Amino acid sequence: MFKTVKQNKAYQDVVEQIQEAIMEGTLKPGRQLPAERELKEQFGISRGTLREALRVLEQKGLIEIRTGVTGGSIIREVNSENLSDNLGLLIRNRAVSLRDLAEFREGMEGGVAALAAQRATEQDRSLLQGLQEEAESYLKEGRKVWDAFVRTDERIHMALASMSGNQLFIAVLTSVYHNIHTYYENYLPWNKELLQENFNDLCNIIAAVSDRDSERARETALGHVRRFNAYMEGVP
Amino acid sequence: MFKTVKQNKAYQDVVEQIQEAIMEGTLKPGRQLPAERELKEQFGISRGTLREALRVLEQKGLIEIRTGVTGGSIIREVNSENLSDNLGLLIRNRAVSLRDLAEFREGMEGGVAALAAQRATEQDRSLLQGLQEEAESYLKEGRKVWDAFVRTDERIHMALASMSGNQLFIAVLTSVYHNIHTYYENYLPWNKELLQENFNDLCNIIAAVSDRDSERARETALGHVRRFNAYMEGVP
DNA sequence: TGCAATTAAATGGTTAGACCATTAGTAGGA
DNA sequence: TCCTACTAATGGTCTAACCATTTAATTGCA
């Protein structure tokens, strides 16, 4: 019949009030909160309690706290960084396996590439072109810059996610890449041929995106991920 | 050449130390940290600073803080609650739209269903059977239990995610469902025919999973999500 | 003996006031 | 004009005390 009454701590109340003000738009990104010594008066609490509340808001990604005379708590533009961090914690903590990450990536990369193909701007296309040339130059330089190549590969995939315009894909793929990186470096039997194959796949995906051919982008990307996942079969 | 030196605040240092201990497994879920008055001695900081650190860890979902004589900071089993909260914030802030959620779901549901088909046990299959019957009975009861039907629908999708055995799918889909619910309830033009169509889709997916036919499960699930997303086209 | 009420003790929650560290502007001198 | 030192405002940290909550131990009555 009745819900148990929740006895809010003082700092929680402060967190909720400020969070609501941000969500409602009363507090807009870029705007600054009053200084701590004034805020504590407005809320009628001590500075220590206020600071606990501000730390929580900071951790939630809602404010940024700067020191110095012009410093203070600044309302942040909400982004998906936090979601990535949280997912990263979850991945590390639950000991998500390479297999899990790989399966998950299979589910997403195709869709991301398809959306990117639909939504890429002229600027996006030239960005991809530039990244492709960068990757090619690393490939030619040979073994000593292989990890530079791998990083560029990752940047291309993230650029595609970015072009999808979908914050969810961006956030989730960011975490996945951050955590899958070590696996790929350690377990893939990198050699000249594999890098070349990887590069060819990238070129095909980029070409499909440039042609605004979303279905070809989807299939090419999915095929790429599947093939490379298969190369890692049997890895713990 | 060199990275900029990061001047850590004291509380950040504490957060990192405790977080790492949890991630490495030195601190296991259920275990309690020392009391604040002792912890502050171990870290060589004041209680206020320590409490800021604990609040951050609490917000990250890594510890739970209880009052009382047996209280203290208890290491938590990390779950996807935080992820859901975060996604909720992004949605309320309009950083993630219904369209984003729908696109994302399209990317995942097919893969989940395919994995479920490969990995479902006998027990899983009978669980699905039970849920299907439950949904059918709600459907027959008519309008007054429609939201019971919708909740069962959600449980079926989550059961499939669970059967995929992939913690990533489970965590992410849990968050997505928790947050997409309001959209579906408000914007889908629910009526008898739509519910029936929904139910038929579910039956087909469940049948494919029961037959261990992963490709049919993938296609059926994907088609289902796509069709229902299309019904919501034009929604903000 | 058994149980209920009371008390005690440990924990987190909060307060007050002080001082330190960082930063940007300002004034003053070379 | 330019550099330097100072000043003031902000967050960061510390100390020490008291309040609030919860559990376990104690007490006292039946």
How would you explain this protein's 3D organization?
Two copies of one chain form a homodimer. With 236 residues, the first copy, chain A, is mainly α. Chain A has ten helices and two strands; from the N terminus they run αααββααααααα. A two-stranded antiparallel ribbon of chain A has the order 1-2. In chain A, β1 and β2 (72-75) form a beta hairpin. The termini of chain A are far apart. The A-B interface holds A 11, 23, 48, 51-52, 55-56, 59-62, 78-80, 82-83, 86-87, 89-94, 96, 100-101, 103-104, 106-108, 110-112, 115, 164, 166-169, 172, 176 and B 11, 22-23, 48, 51-52, 55-56, 59-62, 78-80, 82-83, 86-87, 89-90, 92-93, 95-96, 100-101, 103-104, 106-108, 110-112, 115, 164, 166-169, 171-172, 176. Chain B binds a DNA duplex (30 and 30 nucleotides) through residues 7, 9-11, 35-37, 45-49, 51-52, 54, 65-73.
Q: Can you give me a brief rundown of this structure?
A:
The structure is a homodimer of 236-residue chains. In chain A, 71% of the residues lie in helices and 3% in strands.
Largest interface: A-B, 43 and 44 residues
Helix fraction of chain A, binned, reads: over 70%
Give the N-to-C terminal Cα separation of chain A. 50 Å
Radius of gyration of chain A: 23 Å
- Overall mean pLDDT of chain A stands at 91
- What shape does the CA trace of chain A take? elongated
Number of strands of chain A: 2
